[in-house]
Write a structure and sequence with these properties.
With 449 residues, the chain is α/β, with parallel strands linked by helices. 35% of the residues lie in helices and 22% in strands. Helix 5 links the parallel strand 4 (128-135) and strand 5 (159-160). The chain is globular and about 60 Å long.
Length: 449
């Protein structure tokens, strides 16, 4: 230990410790206030709790609450992860909007509830509840988390207000029973408008293959411009929904790889091929069948769980693979525009020669000091091949330093393999408690699919 009587140095050291303390304390204080509010919910009102990943469930929760408030019913809207055992046992009426992530898993916003409450007994004889389960029927465990939540509530003695309502990929017709039940509960048919913003025509302006010669499926960079009117605003991390002609009631979501200053929406779309050689409906249309100049029905979707928000001034650790570079590129372009260079990207794909998407751009940013560190993993390249999650352990000391400096972690890409591997690696380096604290403070965010 080095001791000093230099008062200036001592003052600077004290200031650094104070700044670090404030950095750690403020997110903790916000989290404590949020949880305290959730723990003291008014038992005379309704709880509307949502577990959402891309924001759709949260929007439906707000619309649900608006319907009840129109009838003069007190409502508290909260993320499911913030609902405490005390609040649940004290409540008489609750409505749950529960998305399913991947093959039956809870989304990030519901994982804490699933892990801490749904793994034990919690008598709920007073509670009357309803569940709106959101899912995708292309997965084996359709609405898996919503069904599990419904089953757990019933096992605790809670009484269902009506049968569980299930929605497949946001289908409007599937939502009708939920709206009808709400109107009945609220005693009014004068419900607020539940319609999402309308799709508007955007022109497919440019398209190019990013990975010619790749052993994997082709990946296309696609640029879209409004067919009329001014360019709307969005934030890095947001999504678009696109409606292919053959699937008008099933919009496809994509991460936006650009910022408004770029003048258009950039998408990164991998062409999906089925076993019989046919292409995916949305990817086939966008990548092959739609000609440049074709009008594409599109609408922007805020993705609040993946926006920068309070993390805009923090160092960023960005981790992803494959087409997940799209969401991370959006954040990098926002940071570059703001002149913020404390960015660390860890990215994985098949072969460096073909699959380093936006490689020239990334290397230029690194040379300019706007990308402080770039770590790459290529699974098909020689003896040193590996995956992006394998990059974390060797950089563990640096990772801990960045986190201590207040960094936020953003993960984008494959749910299967990558997301779980990254989470496991982070927990091995930082510890479970630290990772969960980062998530609760909004410093660990994921957009995985």
């Amino acid at each position: 230990m080095i001791l000093t009587n230099d008062t200036t140095r001592l003052a600077l050291t004290a200031a650094c410790f104070a700044a670090y303390g404030v950095t750690c304390f403020l997110p903790w204080l916000r989290m404590r206030r949020k949880r305290a509010a959730a723990g003291t919910a008014d038992p005379a009102g309704w709880i509307v709790a949502y577990a959402s990943q891309t924001g759709n469930g949260e929007e439906l929760a707000q619309q649900t609450a608006a319907t009840l408030r129109l009838a003069g019913i007190g409502v508290r809207v909260m993320e499911l992860g913030d609902v405490s055992a005390q609040a649940l046992q004290g409540a008489e009426r609750a409505l749950f909007i529960a998305s399913t992530y991947g093959e039956g898993d809870a989304p990030d916003g519901g994982a804490a509830f699933a892990g801490k409450l749904m793994t034990r007994s919690l008598p709920l004889p007073r509670l009357h509840y309803g569940v709106l389960a959101l899912g995708d029927s292309s997965y084996a465990h359709f609405c898996g988390f919503g069904r599990a939540l419904d089953g757990w509530l019933a096992a605790q003695g809670a009484q269902p207000l009506f049968p569980r309502v299930e929605v497949d990929r946001g289908a409007t017709a599937d939502l009708a029973p939920w709206r009808q039940q709400l109107s009945h509960l609220a005693g009014t048919s004068d419900a607020p408008d539940w319609e999402a913003p309308a799709f508007t025509p955007w022109r497919l302006a440019r398209r190019r293959v990013l990975n010619p010669g790749s052993a994997g499926a082709p990946v296309y960079h696609i640029e879209l411009e409004p067919a009329a009117g001014a360019l709307p605003a969005w934030q890095s991390g947001d999504l678009v929904q696109v409606v292919p002609p053959a699937q008008a009631d099933r919009p496809r979501e994509y991460s936006i790889a650009s910022v408004p200053a770029d003048g258009c929406v950039h998408l990164l779309v991998r062409l999906h091929r089925h076993a019989d050689g046919s292409t995916g409906i949305a990817s086939g249309w966008l990548c092959q069948h739609a000609e440049e100049g074709t009008l594409v029905p599109l609408r922007l979707r805020p993705h609040r769980r993946f926006r920068l928000e309070d993390n805009a001034a923090r160092p960023l650790i960005l981790i992803g693979n494959g087409s997940g570079i799209a969401g991370l590129r959006g954040h990098l372009r926002a940071r570059v525009a703001a002149g913020q260079g404390r960015n660390w990207l860890l990215f994985g794909e098949r072969q460096r020669a073909h699959d380093l998407h936006y490689g020239d751009e990334l290397l230029a940013w690194q040379e300019q000091g706007l990308l402080a560190r770039l770590d790459l993993a290529f699974s098909r390249d020689g003896a040193g091949r590996g995956y992006v999650q394998d990059l974390l352990a060797p950089a563990g000391d640096l990772l801990r330093t960045w986190i201590a400096d207040g960094a936020a972690v953003y993960v984008c890409g494959s749910l299967e393999g990558m997301a779980g591997g990254v989470d496991q690696a982070l927990r091995g380096i930082l510890g479970d408690d630290a990772v969960e604290a980062l998530a609760a403070a909004g410093r660990y965010r994921r957009d995985v699919y």
